[in-house]
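hi! just following up on the protien thing from before. the input was this:
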Amino acid sequence: MKKLINKKLLLLIFAILLSVGLISCKDDQVPIDELPAVNTTLYRTDVLTGVEQVILDELELGFDFFWETANSNLESSGYGLIPDRYNTYTNTAGNVASIASVGFGLTAIPIGIENDWITRVQGEERAYYTLVTLQNMARTHGFWYHFVDMQTGVRVWNSEVSIIDSALLINGVLTVGRYFGGRVEQLAYQLYEEIEWNWYFDYEVNKFYMGYKPETGFEGYWGGYAEQLTVFVLAAGSPDYSVGKGAYQLMKLSSSKVSSGVDYGSFYPTWTGSLFTHQYSHAWIDFASYNDEQGYNWFTNSVNAVDAAIAYAKSQTSQYIGINENSWGMSASDGPSGYVGNYGSGPSAGNAHFVDGTVPAYGALGSIVFRPAEAIAAAINYRTYERFWSIYGFKDAYNLSNSANGWFGNDIIGIDKGISVLMIENYMSQMIWKIYMEVPYVLDGLENLDFVAVE
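and the predicted 3d structure came back as:
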């Protein structure tokens, strides 16, 4: 890992440049004398030593993916947008951005700065003008379309106005806002405050809708437990468009725990058993430090779900040569026949998981905060397959049972790479948790849901 630079000196230089308005290449949106104070907190103070090189490489190359593939043309209406996919065979990105990928990419900016891969000035500019792009894009009651054109920011594929992808995006927005302070924080908080969470909520059934399209209206509901914990917290913390704790309580009542009593503890499973559903909200919210009003801890829930995924992988070894104790964590990903959303491990709610021997790298890497030794062992195993490695670290997924030579996907998927990068950094320094848990809306949301800090 590169040697960290003198942060205090860099922060002083940054503050001077900001004060005289020299950082931006576009006109500032807000008068300098009206900006909040620049955040000069040092977050990365307890980096682990002796971290396996494959973990360090995946962190740095994963950051490079978000930094290098983003639209970096300041004159473009899509500045800062990050592709949904990147093909490592042709070394080309697609023309479509995922707003969730942008959320992960924004969150990765402090990682790049604290590791001395980019300067704070570079990161602040990228963050601020990405937020300007987001401000100028078409929104519906504050929410963004799921997929947009990389160059224009205009909706593509007839995609939905997405509550969960907007939540993942705003998590990244809030992270850079708090990290930089100043104009980034001001615009970040404005974007958050404009999201009308109560519009996306059906008070008659006490549930958030699953999706919305202008042509057809709302469709489906978020019912049982899944990756949407962050939605409950963000919605509860909104100063003007809040949704109370009743929705969270109903979600728990609508979900049922499972337990084997042998290989793992009890936990709330998700519908598909895809491991990302136990990871995404935890990339930002430090659930290990909070119990809900019934004393339930969602970090422990994810630990037990990961244990179940490892136990399930062991049970599949005789059937699939590529699934074992060091190759586990089935989750939504590319497969030999295309993208499969219900790749997952049993037990799953409704027994909805599917397995064909395909394993994504992020299943284990995104679980490194829950089971570090097991995740690192999986990463070391994955690194022995040169066809699984690329200029941006691990590719999305592989399947050794597919043919004599096995199948290795060519693509990097932004959200899959994103959860790997954020969780590795949290494992090493807890930095993303430290930053995000300083956002006042997040603390308000947890308090309004009656979560209590663990003593």
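DSSP finds 14 helices and 19 strands in the chain.
The chain has one domain: 7-453.
cheers
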